[in-house]
Specification:
Layout: E1 6-8, E2 14-15, H1 16-28, E3 32-34, H2 38-41, E4 49-54, H3 61-74, E5 79-83, E6 96-99, H4 103-107, H5 112-122, E7 127-131, H6 134-142, E8 150-154, E9 167-172, E10 183-184, H7 186-192, E11 195-198, H8 206-219, E12 224-229, E13 232-234, E14 244-250, H9 251-254, H10 263-270, E15 275-276, H11 286-293, E16 301-303, H12 308-320, E17 325-329, E18 344-349, E19 352-354, H13 359-369
Parallel strand pairs: 1-3, 4-8, 4-9, 5-7, 5-8, 9-11, 11-12, 14-15, 14-16, 14-17, 17-18
Antiparallel strand pairs: 2-10, 6-7, 12-19, 13-18
């Protein structure tokens, strides 16, 4: 009908079965099916680049990126982060976005998903860029008004970076052991890695951790392997102990990330919640569509907020749910953008390396190699 010659697959965090099923549809229609690789998609920077990617959505890229940036800033280096593209809506206006203050989130009309990624950087005092035109974004980042010694690529989903990295760090997740070799393009990020972080060791079984170790050894035996944990902290444990709680988790992690356990669930178990309340009988509006599209989410509520209506639906669903309290396990303060009428507490998580090697050693070697000090 359209006389298409070539079809390029441009989606991430999908199984190999899904990729080849799409290929079958394309080939049966007569067109070529293509996957474009790093040589044709990565842009070269004039600044040293550290890239953080993952084998699945929700492995812990964000806290790993934050840890890398903290280490660089502690050494007195000027760091500019660039986030994988996330804009929705007017893409012309969102060609190049710079976030240095919380007011910039409102200025650029960010969705909840965008705020979850940008806000943790901004509140720590570093600049983060995003948008649509990554050549223009990179050039602006390189000459940022606050100065730039190092670019940190903060990846999205399980994509490989848009900028050619001088150091590639890939995060894995034993909660989904084996997925590192079954999802596209996650295995690409694993094979590209100079450093592989096995995250969430503190909440995973030894058997699952071993599966991930064997996968790394199979496809990238020369990578430096760092053991990591994501210990949690909460504002008020009394909101959890003995209570029937509604757990609100990061949206993408629950949906296409297919996670069954997140930081909110870990907090509920650790601090003695009586019960996880199922939000599904109480969902309204577009959140109903989310649960239909992803029926395996279960007794968790994804923090979906792609526009005002979804935010209103999220607020109403939380307030409708018959629970004692709410655990907010998204990376942002939901109370800042919606009105939660129930007792609630936030969950925080950062990367903690276990033993050696660790990221401090890796970053020190990187800084010496590139003569940044």
């Amino acid at each position: 009908m359209y006389n298409v010659d070539d079809c390029v697959f441009s989606y991430s965090d999908v199984t190999y079965q899904k990729v080849m099923s799409v290929s079958a549809i394309v080939n049966s229609a007569g067109a070529n099916f293509m996957l474009i690789g790093p040589s044709d998609t990565m842009i070269k920077s004039v600044k040293p680049v550290i890239a953080v990617g993952a084998v699945r959505t929700g492995c812990g890229k964000s806290q790993t990126s934050r840890r890398v940036i903290e280490l660089l800033m502690e050494m007195g280096l000027r760091v500019v982060a660039v986030r994988h593209p996330m804009p929705y809506g007017d893409l012309v206006r969102q060609r190049v976005q710079r976030f240095a203050e919380l007011s910039d989130l409102e200025k650029h009309e960010c969705t909840v998903e965008e705020m979850e990624e940008y806000e943790p950087h901004v509140v720590r005092g570093n600049v983060i860029y995003a948008g649509v035109d990554y050549e223009a974004i990179l050039r602006d980042a390189e000459k940022d008004q606050k100065g730039c010694d190092v670019i940190v690529w903060d990846g999205g989903n399980n994509d490989f970076p848009f900028f050619r990295p001088d150091l590639m760090i890939t995060v894995t997740d034993p909660h989904r052991a084996g997925h590192e070799l079954r999802y596209y393009p996650g295995e690409v990020t694993l094979r590209l890695a100079d450093v592989v972080v096995i995250n969430k060791i503190d909440s995973s079984s030894p058997e699952a951790v071993q599966v991930v170790r064997e996968s790394i050894e199979k496809v990238n035996p020369t990578a430096v392997v760092i053991d990591g944990a994501s210990p949690i902290k909460v504002d008020d444990t009394s909101v959890i102990k003995g209570k029937k709680v509604l757990v609100v988790e990061d949206g993408p992690t629950l949906t296409h990330g297919e996670m069954k356990i997140g930081a909110g669930v870990v907090a509920a178990r650790k601090f003695g919640a009586m019960q996880l309340v199922d939000p599904r009988p109480f969902v309204v509006g577009r959140l109903k569509e989310t649960f239909k599209l992803y029926p395996d989410i279960g007794t968790l509520l994804p923090a979906m907020g792609y526009g005002d209506q979804q935010l209103k639906d999220l607020e109403k669903t939380i307030n409708n749910t018959e629970c004692d309290s709410v655990i907010i396990a998204t990376p942002i303060d939901l109370n800042r953008i919606i009105k939660i009428k129930k007792p609630n507490t936030r969950v925080y998580y950062d990367l903690q390396e276990i033993g050696e090697p660790n990221l401090s050693q890796v970053i020190n070697d990187f800084v010496k190699k590139h003569k940044l000090l």
